[in-house]
């Protein structure tokens, strides 16, 4: 395996115990939910289960994991920048870090608000819900940018994301986890 893949495998093996999930959420995942979570960390996945069997919990675990990974990367980048500033190394150039975000898509406004509440209650993340009735299509670049910067999870309808992508206010490269509910 390449370095990145083995690192991910180590994290999957070491970081997906019940303690990891229980520490972050109110619900205790079942064994099949942990298995789905681990599989989704390894590769893009489609989880198809009956209503009420815990698909959202799998998503919440993924959101928390990706958020913690992003926070760790942010800390490492800040430390590197601090070291370079201390060394006054003008020749060293760090690649500008683009903040990643998690996006959870729903097909109805009611589900946007419901899932935003569930994610908020089961993670320590800053969650915002976006729906068309909020006037999001009329927001300027500054307002979109501010919302993006102050959130770690955005829950929205598919159309809101599509419109933001088309307008250039959102970019797929800035999304590290995309959940289609």
Count of β-strands: 4
* Rg value: 18 Å
Taking the sheet with the most strands, its summary is: 4 strands, parallel
The strand order across the widest sheet is 2-3-1-4
Order of helices and strands: HHHHEHEHEHE
Overall pLDDT level: 80
Strand content: 5-15%
How would you briefly describe this protein structure?
This protein is of the alpha/beta class and 181 residues long. 54% of the residues lie in helices and 12% in strands.
Structural notes for this entry:
The chain has helices at 3-15, 18-24, 31-42, 55-87, 109-122, 141-149, 158-166, and strands at residues 101-106, 127-130, 153-157, 175-180. It has 181 residues and is an alpha/beta fold. A 4-stranded parallel β-sheet has the order 2-3-1-4. The radius of gyration is 18 Å and the shape is globular.
From the structure above, extract its key features:
four-stranded parallel sheet, 7 helices, alpha/beta, 181 residues, 4 strands, globular
Ordered list of secondary-structure elements with their pairings:
Elements: H1 3-15, H2 18-24, H3 31-42, H4 55-87, E1 101-106, H5 109-122, E2 127-130, H6 141-149, E3 153-157, H7 158-166, E4 175-180
Parallel strand pairs: 1-3, 1-4, 2-3
Helix pairs in contact: 3-4
């Amino acid at each position: 395996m390449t370095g990145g893949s083995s690192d991910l495998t180590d994290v999957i093996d070491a970081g997906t115990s019940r303690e990891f999930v229980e520490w972050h959420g109110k619900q205790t995942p079942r064994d099949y939910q942990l298995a789905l979570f681990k599989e989704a960390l390894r590769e893009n996945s489609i989880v198809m289960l009956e209503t009420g069997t815990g698909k959202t919990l799998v998503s919440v675990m993924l959101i928390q994991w990706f958020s913690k990974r992003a926070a760790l990367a942010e800390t490492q980048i800040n430390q590197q920048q601090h070291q370079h500033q201390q060394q006054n190394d003008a020749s060293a150039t760090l690649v500008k870090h683009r903040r990643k975000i998690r996006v959870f898509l729903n097909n109805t406004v009611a589900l946007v608000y419901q899932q935003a509440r569930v994610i908020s209650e089961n993670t320590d993340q800053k969650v915002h819900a976006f729906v068309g009735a909020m006037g999001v299509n009329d927001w300027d670049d500054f307002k979109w940018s501010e919302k993006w910067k102050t959130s770690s999870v955005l829950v929205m309808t598919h159309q809101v994301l599509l419109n933001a992508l088309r307008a250039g206010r959102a970019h797929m490269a800035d999304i590290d986890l995309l959940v289609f509910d």
